[in-house]
Specification:
Blueprint (H helix, E strand, L loop, with lengths): L5 E2 L5 H13 L2 H13 L6 E5 L4 H12 L3 E5 L8 H9 L3 E4 L5 H12 L5 E4 L3 H10 L5 H10 L4 H6 L3 E4 L2 H12 L7 E3 L4 H24 L7 E5 L3 H12 L4 E5 L3 H9 L3 E2 L2 H7 L2 E4 L9 H4 L7 E4 L9 H7 E8 L2 E6 L4 E5 L5 H4 L6 H20 L8 E2 L3 H15 L8 H7 L7
Parallel strand pairs: 1-4, 2-3, 2-5, 3-4, 5-6, 6-7, 7-16, 8-9, 8-11, 9-10, 11-12, 12-15
Antiparallel strand pairs: 13-14, 14-15
Helix pairs in contact: 1-3, 1-4, 2-3, 2-17, 3-17, 5-6, 5-7, 10-11, 10-17, 17-18
The structure holds nicotinamide-adenine-dinucleotide (NAD).
Length: 440
């Protein structure tokens, strides 16, 4: 039986098509791959279960996979990030989309179950919800995720279903951490390509993509002036670096970084940022942005110290970085003061403003990363699927990085599309670089 199709409003399809067209205009690398896929059909007959943010850029990826011969069942990877017009357009094109903005937890895992009901050859994740739910079903682990997924899937032979999977792909840092934990615990049942570990993914998507789109989300939600503000960025990984860099560019008076890793903290200091523990930063900051992939980074003891008017946003994958239950506990009242902005009045009389319920601010309050950056991330996704198919049966039940030559091919295609030329090594230079006898 085919997966179900369920979107908010099918009549939004025309608007969605225009959005996708706009994204395609800015995704030349993926379009090049699509052109080749259309001719070579490397994914002929394959079924892909995907859990990705349902955005216009994802639509460009899905069209590319379809051009390669695959059928795709698409679930969201966040309850708040679906662009309903894009979902409608994809549904009209025959993609099994089950997604709308503002799903509750049950609907969200129904969607994951629906994607799995395609009985996939490949799983594609952003945050590991499909792969972890699938493995829990196989291992008969009962929780809300499997219960709700089974409302759509019913009882099936999940063992048989997983045994035919060729492999999976994972888009983000947090998802890769989860899948590596599955590998470590000896439960991972098929090879997974960690797309996040490609240079052409994290150096650009995590840093420049999130650096810009996080601010886009904050500004669309609040329309505040960043100039003159004190910004606190938790985590100085690839995402945190981008967010801090752009905070400075927008004119923040001070940019403070909090870290737990001495190397990253040192790097932040040398990059010219102040570094201090969150407990100190909490008293000082006007805007707080979490980007750690960790839980409870901003919690009760921090919130209690914050100034009246402090704004809190998260751009890490899950909604656990700002510990919302603590804010709820400290608050005497709350109201939505603008779309995406919840005002909490605390017992100490101060008001703090939480954006997007602590979920990914760039996707919940804006449109996620610009297409130019997703061009490279999703080129890696498309090539990762092709790589899995070409190496069917040869890979172990492990997490792999995409081979460097494919990663570099994405960079080359991007430079070509941007009209940027670079130098080539001369024969003499190649010899010099590979020799231990030349030079003094
Ligand atoms: N918003 C988006 O569109 C988007 C895009 C890419 C990645 N992400 C997500 O952003 C998160 C960060 O990704 P990344 O690639 O920068 O990861 P990373 O591993 O490079 O960086 C995370 C940093 O956070 C630090 N950290 C961990 N716990 C901390 C704590 N309690 N206090 C302060 N710092 C702490 C770590 O030491 C590390 O330096 C992940 O959840 C990732 O999935 C979101």
């Amino acid at each position: 039986m085919c997966p179900q199709v369920k979107v908010k409003d099918p009549s939004l399809a025309e608007r969605g098509r225009l959005q996708i067209e706009w994204a395609e205009r800015h995704m030349p690398v993926l379009l090049k791959i699509r052109e080749r896929f259309s001719k070579e059909r490397p994914l002929e007959g394959l079924k892909i279960a995907a859990s990705l943010h349902v955005t216009k850029e994802t639509a460009v990826l899905v069209r590319t996979l379809v051009a390669g011969g695959a059928s795709v069942a698409l679930a969201p990877c966040n309850p708040l990030s679906t662009q309903d017009d894009v979902a409608a357009a994809l549904a009209e094109e025959g993609v099994y989309v089950y997604a709308w903005r503002g799903m509750n937890e049950r609907e969200y895992y129904n969607a994951i179950g629906n994607a799995l009901s395609i009985e996939p050859d490949i799983t594609m994740d952003d945050g590991a919800d499909i792969i972890s739910t699938f493995h829990k079903l196989v291992l008969k682990i009962e929780d809300d995720a499997t219960r709700y997924a089974k409302e759509i899937l019913g009882e099936r032979d999940f063992e048989k279903m997983i045994s035919k999977v060729i492999g999976g792909t994972e888009e983000t840092t947090t998802g890769v951490i989860r899948i590596k934990a599955m590998e470590r615990d000896g439960v991972l049942r098929y090879p997974v390509i960690a797309v996040n570990e490609s240079y052409t993914k994290y150096l650009f998507d995590n840093r420049y993509g999130t650096g810009q789109s996080t601010w886009d989300g904050i500004l669309r939600a609040t329309n505040i002036l960043v100039a003159g503000k004190i910004v606190v960025v938790a985590g100085y990984g690839w995402v945190g670096r981008g967010v801090a860099m752009r905070a400075r560019g927008l004119g923040a008076r001070r940019v403070i970084v909090t870290e737990v890793n001495p190397l990253r903290a040192l790097e932040a200091v040398m990059d010219g940022f102040e570094v201090m523990p969150m407990i100190k930063a909490a008293e000082i900051g006007d805007i707080f942005i979490t980007a750690t992939g960790n839980m409870k980074v901003i919690r009760k003891e921090h919130v209690e110290k914050m100034k009246d008017g402090a704004i809190l946003a998260n751009t890490g994958h899950f909604n656990v970085e700002i510990w919302v239950p603590d804010i709820e506990e400290l608050a005497v009242s709350k109201r939505e003061i603008r779309p995406g902005v919840t005002e909490y009045t605390l017992r100490n009389g101060r008001r703090i403003y939480l954006l997007a319920e602590g979920r990914l601010v760039n996707l919940a309050c804006a449109e996620g990363h610009p297409s130019e950056v997703m061009d490279m991330s999703f080129a890696n996704q498309a090539l990762a699927v092709e790589y899995l198919v070409k190496n069917r049966g040869k890979l172990e039940r492990k997490v792999y990085k995409l081979p460097d030559e494919l990663d570099i091919s994405v960079a080359k295609l991007k430079l070509d599309a941007m009209g940027v030329e670079i130098d080539q090594l001369t024969e003499e230079q190649k010899k010099y670089l590979s020799s231990w006898t030349l030079g003094t």
